[in-house]
Amino acid sequence: YNFNNAILRRPSKSVVNGLRDDNRGNPTYEGVVAEHDAYLKAMEEAGVNLHILPALEEFPDSIFVEDPALVFPEGAILLRPGAATREGETTAIAKDIHKLFDTVLQIEAGYVDGGDILNTPDAVMIGLSARTTREGAQALIECLAKIGRKGVLVETPANVLHFKSDCSLLDDNTMLSTKRLSVSGVFEGLNVLHTPDGEEGAANALRVNDVVFVGSDFPQTIKMLQDAGYSVVPLATSQIAKIDAGLSCMSLRY
Ligand code: CIR
């Protein structure tokens, strides 16, 4: 969670048509831009150097730059998003990734969304989901091995879009997680703080250097984290939540 750099992509006007599971209405373009602007500012204030990519009208979900790639200080891995309308985002981001990294690998089989990947001090967890296939996860484990990292397969709860929709890393040995995810025992050996009932959406928080970004619609989670000693930066997410996104999705951090 110590990052010097982050890659972001400006929202396109087509973001209003972003993918979603249940229709809770379209977000507005202006609303998404406002949430993105506040996120970008919070990243800068947290001490991160930003690489901001231009909007891509042909890909409504391309603001969620976390999904087509995975980045580490030592290199990047191009992924293959598992939604048909998002597959082309890999090619779209590849040239920017090549500019920023000397080592760039690519998964050659199956599908993996970056939203299913949680980097912990021990290992890189890869959640199987409707977007991330076993074949893709295996291909990713091989790429990770080439840059000296260990990948492990884990399960995403049913009806949850991404593994990281339900969890985030708060520090080296503490996770924020929904109860439905942690009952699987996936975080055994780590401290787990559970999102209060009704605030499951807060689990996709984001630790960036000394602060934790948390959705501002989740007061109980914010208080719980503050009481636990974290410095919380509440950020509005109600627009991006309409297209199933949270705080990790809008950046690639390294
Ligand atoms: C999608 O369904 O792909 C987008 N509407 C939301 C992606 C959120 N990304 C993420 O959690 N990494």
Q: What would you note in describing this structure?
A:
- The chain is an alpha/beta fold.
- The chain has a single domain, classed as 5-stranded Propeller (L-arginine/glycine Amidinotransferase, Chain A), CATH 3.75.10.
- It has six helices and 15 strands.
- The protein has helices at 29-45, 89-100, 134-146, 179-182, 219-227, 238-241, and strands at residues 5-9, 49-53, 69-72, 75-78, 104-106, 117-119, 124-128, 151-155, 167-171, 174-177, 191-194, 206-208, 211-215, 231-235, 252-253.
- The strands form five sheets. The protein has a three-stranded mixed beta sheet with strand order 2-1-15, with helices on one face.
- Strand 1, helix 1 (29-45) and strand 2 form a beta-alpha-beta unit.
- The longest helix has 17 residues, at 29-45.
- The radius of gyration is 17 Å and the shape is globular.
- The relative contact order is 0.17.
- Citrulline (CIR) binds next to loops.
